[in-house]
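Hi P.,

Sorry for the delay on this. The queue was packed all week, but I finally got your sequence through. Input first:
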Amino acid sequence: MSLDYLSHFGLAADPFAKDIADAELWLPPSKLSLVEDLTEAMHARASALLTGEPGVGKTCVLRALRHALAPANFRLVYCQNTTVGRRDFYRHLCLALGLAKASTAGDLFLAVSAHVEDLAKERVCPVFLVDEAHLLHQDTLDHLHILLNYQWDQKPLLSLVLIGLPDLEDRLRLRRNRSLYSRIHHRFALGSLHPDDTTDYIRARLARVGATKDIFAVDALAILHEAAGSSLRDTDRLATAALRASARKKKKLVERDVLTRILQSEAEDRA
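Then the structure:
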C-alpha cells in the first residue's frame, strides 16, 4: 500500500518519521523539565550523566538540548562510535572539531585540550555528547576526567555529557572510575512513560501532519502503551503498522482489535 494510508487518514506526511525538526519534537512534562536542568548545567559548564533503557527518548532529550543552546555560545560535538580505543576516540573528537590529525594519543589529547582553551577565550563552551557511553573502553574512561581538568582543575572550560543504558552509572560508581564520576555533578535517569504521555505523544505527532480529530480509539492507545513498554521507537513502529492495517480495512479509527492482531502476529513470528 506504500503511503496510501496517509491519504486515507488525511495526513500530509508520515506522522512517525524520524526526520522531524528539533523545535517540533514532542516531550512529556517530565522530560521538558529535564531539558531545562541540562540546559542550566551546560550554562554552568558542568558535566552530566543521562541514562535510560533503549527507546525511552534519550536522543530526543539531546536534540531538545541542542535546540535550547545558542550556537554562538556553545559548540556541540556528538560522539556515538564509543567501541574504539582511547586514541581513536580522541581522533574522532579531533575530526568532529575540525582539527588536524595527529599520530599519537597524547598529541590528539593535546590538540583537543588546546582547542578547548581557545574556545574559552572566545567565550564559547564546548559540549561533548558521548552517546552509547556504556560501551566505552575502560582505557577511555580512565582518561576522560583528565579532559575535564583545566587550570589546575580550578575552572571548567567544557561540558561532558555521557549518555547510555542504566548500567553506565554502575560502571562509573566503581572505584576505578571515581575520579570521573565525582566530576559529573548532574545525574539524570529517564523513567517510564505514563499512559497519558503515550496518548499525548500520538496525538501530537498526528496533529503535526494534519490530523484534526482522534484517529486512535482510547482502548487502542492503552494497548499500544502497554505493548511499547515506554519505548518511543516501538510506539512509532506499532502505531504505523496499526494505521496501515486500519487503512487496508477502510477504517477511519484505529481500534483495539487491530493492535491485538498486530501483536499476536509479532508473537507468532518470534515463536
